[in-house]
Structures are given as structure tokens and as C-alpha cells.
Amino acid sequence: MLLWGNVTHDYQEAAMGWGSDFTWSYYANRQWNKPHLVTYLESHDEERLMYKNLQWGNAAGSYDIKQLPTALNRIKLVAAFFFTLPGPKMFWQFGELGYDYSIDYNGRLGEKPIRWDYLNDPRRLNLYKTFAALIKLRQQAEVFRKPNQNVLLSGYGYQKSISMSGSPNAVISGNFNVSAATVTLNFAHGGNWFDYFSGDTLSVEGNSKEVTLKPGEFRIYTDVRLEPPEPGILTEIAAAADQLPQRFRLLPAYPNPFNNTTHLQFEVDRISDLQISIIDILGREILKVVSPRHQPGRYLFSWNGCDAAGLPVESGTYFVCFKRQNETNVQKVTLLK
Question: What are the pLDDT digits (tens) for 98-114?
């Protein structure tokens, strides 16, 4: 029998830069003999890590977890201490793209926006690729998935580490603070160790080595060289100014007319809170969606021909209105059944 292991609060606090204790996330630290603890960062019952990062993230100088690129990198950091621990895992839908709508958005049990367009944001795509790389690491190296390994998890405070003996030996270190830190890592033996993400070689004399980590930085070392992931996916990306939209605009709907679902792309040139409304030919608002905190970029809104109650509407002409403050963009769509 597998039992849920809710460690959301601990990972939330760490992601926000306030320190926490991860030790409860490893089954053996609960005095369990079997690895039947299903840990998770988020679930349908818990608040999103990215939402909390953007609302209450810690900051020091120019390092600010409330800023989107830094907030996304903090999710990579906690993921490195989540997927590498042996035992079954669950990650919740769109967590791999940094989903940042509150659990209370549209009511706690209300529908949440579907944001496949997040894949178009290189910063969010790098988080997706980081999740994929960590899952691939579990598949490549049994030490990260095989039960009854010799695992030493130092999960308290701001400087966290995991030491693992197995195939291969591994050491993981992460700086959860908002300032740089120099840490002493303990290795199973001297010699060459390899950084999984960069492929760089770390030469260790004796059994320890000092390593300096930037705020939010982590390293995964193994004593066997593994195929590194795509380079640069841990790097913070700032969108180039010439790649950002220059104005708030709505692109043509497709398909239009439509039978099932129509899609509308829209662009925002600055951080924007949007209200999206569907208006029928008589001027009645049949659906309203409040969509906050859009960073500059291009997004996708899809409408399935249903009203606010989830009931299908009749064939006819409808107006999709995108509004922010005193600006409104309107697109006419035709539903044919």
C-alpha cells in the first residue's frame, strides 16, 4: 500500500527562500522499512509553489524571488531535492511549467485556466526541460530510485545536501538562501566527480571539497560521468527587448467559424491583469474569466462554446472581449453546431 506524503509546506518555504526542513520527505527518515511514501510538491489540495514565490518570495539586493525568472529557477532548485530521493513521486498538472494561479482562483473548486501557451515562454520551457532531465537522471542511475540505499539527507536550514551511496555514488548540494554561500561537501571518496547538468569535472582531494553556490544554485555530482542534459536550461533567461510585444493586441481566432473550440492568441507588452468576457449578440455576458499577472509575451485563450455554468450555448455570433484597465480588444466569433 502506498501512502501520500505531503511535503508541500516544506518545499514551499524553501522555494520562497525562508528555510525549511526536507527530512520528512524521505521514507527512511520516518522509520519506514518500505519505500511506500508518495511525496509531492503540489496537489489539488495545496497551493502552488510558483504562486507563493511570486507573492511572498524573499529578496536580497537584485536577487528577488518575486520576479518571474528567479521564481522559476527556485522551482528547479526544489525539484533537484525532490526527484533525486528514492521512492515514488507525484508532480501536479502544469507544475513543470511553473503554474502560478492560486488554488483559490475562481473559487477553490473552480476551474483554473489551461495554459499550454506557457510552453512558448523559453523561461518556463527551461523548467519543463529541467524536470525532464531530473526524471531522466532517475532512469539512468538506480541510486536515485532504488530503495534501501545509504542516503544521508541534510534538509534543515538554507544549505541542504544529499549524500547517496550506490550505483553511482552521488552528492547533491543546494543553496536555498537569497545570498551566496560557501559549503563543504562530503564525498564518498577522492578523485573526479562530475556535475550532471554542466558535465564539468570536480577534482576532490580526500573526502571533502568547498563549493561556492550562488543564491538558488544547486549541483548534482556523481562519480560516474552521465550524459548531461541540454546545456543552458538552468540559466536565468531574460527576454530580449526586441522579442517582446510592443502593444496589447488580439490576433485572429482560429478556427472561426468553429464547431467545438476556438483559440485566440493575444499579446501584452507589460505586466497585465486581464478580464476576458464572452458576450452574446444581445449584449449579455455569458462567461467572464479574470486572468491576472500576465508577464510580457504571447498567450493563448481557448473557448469551448460553454457559458459560466459549463452549459453549451446556442449557435450564433459571439464577441470575445479582452480588457485591461481602459484598453479593450474585441474579436467576433461564430459558433456553428
Answer: 999 899 888 888 888 88
